[in-house]
Amino acid sequence: MSMVINTNMGAMNAQRILDGTSREQNTSMERLTSGLRINKAADDAAGLAVVTGMKTQSIGTQQAVRNANDSIGMLQTVDGASEEVVNMLQRMRELAIQSMNGTYNNENRSQMQSEFGQLQKEIVRVADTTKFNGMNIMNSSSFSVLNASTVNNSSFAQAASAANAFKAHVGWEGGSDNRVGVALMNFNSLASLASGTVRLMSGDPASVTFALAVGIASTALSAIDADLAAISTMRANWGAIQNRLEYTVSNLQNVDENINASRSRIEDADFAKESANLARTQVLQQAGMSMLSQANQSSQNVLSLLR
Questions:
Q1: Closest CA to 220 of 189, 199, 195, 205
Q2: CA–CA distance from 160 to each of 79, 130, 141, 219 (Å)?
Q3: What span, in angstroms and rounded, lies between the C-alpha atoms of 293 and 300?
Q4: What is the pLDDT of residues 98-111, one digit of tens each?
Q5: CB 95 within 8 A of CB 112
Q6: What is the radius of gyration, based on Cα positions, of the chain?
Q7: Which residues contact 61 (CB under 8 A, 6 or more apart)?
Q8: DSSP annotation string for 64-107
Q9: Structure confidence by residue, pLDDT tens digits, 123-134
Q10: How far apart are CA 153 and CA 176, in angstroms?
Q11: φ, ψ for residue 88, nearest 5 deg
């Protein structure tokens, strides 16, 4: 073997191996610091593309969960307000039945009418002021709604699919398949709120016969019963949609969990593996430095030939 001093192949070899060891060590340190196996595209180009798509789906899915829960909150709001309207209608119905009894005179019926009229006004006020995030959900000012007279099970699908109907977006992508339409009702259209025709006393009490008083109360009773039936049908529909949305939330959470599990297997660093690799590269680096020193020292042997 020839002995040369201009080209130290041993040192060059040691430097090359040390450079590779340092790169591996830096990669392990980067992964242990960030907790990620993929910190840049060069780490795993294909894996990065897959992970990016999974993150997009996961972020969208998490927002869809919030959308569904917010929609459940909206339905609970309108259902709670509807419960109070039902309570007022029940009281109005009670007054109507009371006024039909012959033991009451027209003066008494006028007193009943006073409460009856106040309840009508309160239902209108509730319908006009009940809002969710600033949007009215009991009249037609924010969304397209059904009139009380048209409420039935067959009208819900058409009302929910209307262009301006309330729709809960419960998917991570766009498209109608990811939207759940909800039929709302205009409470101002309740028949029992027509104070001109629905009342317990009309005109001069002195001129109202008992038969006429009974007829007036019967008209009010019929209107109230129709309204109670319409609200009950609407509330049943809202309850069904709430249950549907709760299953939607459960499914979205399950999808998100599995997506993140798959993303983790691709993107996250295996700390056991990386810490073992770091320890290995540290030992190799120390050994390589020692060998580089030895390779540099070997050139000194040439001097012994010149003595």
A1: 199
A2: 17, 20, 16, 32
A3: 12
A4: 999 999 999 999 99
A5: yes
A6: 39
A7: 172, 252, 255, 256, 259
A8: HHHHHHHHHHHHHHHHHHHHHHHHHHHHHHHHHHHHTSTTS-HH
A9: 999 999 999 999
A10: 21
A11: -70, -40
| Mode of pairing for the β-strands spanning 131-132 and 135-136 | antiparallel
At 57, the pLDDT band (50, 70, 90 cuts) reads: very high
pLDDT for position 4: 66
Question: Count of alpha carbons within 13 Å of 83, Cβ hemisphere only?
Answer: 8
Structure letter (DSSP) for residue 152: S
Centroid of chain to Cα 97: 45
Q: For residues 183 and 138, what is the distance between their CA atoms, to the nearest angstrom?
A: 11
Which residues have CB under 8 Å from 288's CB, separation 6+?
14, 17, 18, 21
Mean pLDDT calculated for residue range 177-202? 92
153: tokens are: 């099970």
- Taking the C-alpha atoms of residue 218 and residue 111, their distance in angstroms, rounded to an integer, is 17
Confidence grade of residue 307 (pLDDT, cut at 50, 70, 90): low
